[in-house]
Amino acid sequence: MRYSLTSDVVRERLGNSGMGKPDVTDQLCAFGRMLLDETLSRNNQLESKATAVIGFSGAILAFLVTQARSWLVDLSPFEQIIMGCVVASAFAATVAAFLALLISRFAWFSDAQWFQTEGGVLEDADRLKRFHLLAIHSINRKFETANDLKAGRVAFAQRMLALATIGLAAALAIRLTNAL
User: Fold this and answer.
1) Are 32 and 14 a contacting pair, CB within 8 Å?
2) Which of 69, 71, 127, 138 is spaced 20 to 30 Å from 3 by Cα?
3) pLDDT tens, residue by residue, 113-169
4) Which runs of consecutive H residues, i.e. helices, occur in the chain?
5) CA distances from 129 to 20, 45, 70, 100, 109 (A)
């Protein structure tokens, strides 16, 4: 897990360092925007990977269903175990990838954050930027938490897909060897 600061620590650091130095605040804002962009990009990449896993694992399942007559005839106990593992792994990959794609609810920027009025924030541009930095930090942390959960699900789905692929290749190799 990454090292991340709590909102209270960020608030304290914003209040104590560089107060009244707009160039410091501008640098912090630019960096915060970059972090949020990277977090959103990571989310998109994870969703693309999850979609690909669903496609490949679904293809394995579809192949097994359409070829069931030839696969289910005269299977040895070992082949039955392999095929059971292939089906279970492909199914687990599909489910895990689907769970990674589920929409998660979390806070996003609000009008209240945009037009904050407490503490005279709207009266000073630097103070407003610092308040917006707190909002960026909070939203980025929530997105990162969601991304971490999504990444775990995608990683599990990828492992299950790899297991299904290896099992299917092993089953094909056994069938080909027996046919010769």
Assistant:
1) no
2) 127
3) 667 767 666 777 787 788 888 888 888 888 888 999 999 999 999 999 999 999 999
4) 7-16, 22-66, 68-71, 77-101, 111-114, 125-179
5) 11, 29, 66, 34, 14
Q: Mean pLDDT across the chain, nearest whole number? A: 85
Is 92 within 8 Å of 160 (Cβ atoms)? yes
What are the b/e assignments for 22-45, b being 16+ CB within 10 Å?
eebbeebbeebeeebeebeebbee
d(CA 130, CA 22): 10
Instruction: Identify the CA nearest to 32 among candidates 132, 175, 154.
Output: 132
- pTM of the shown model: 0.81
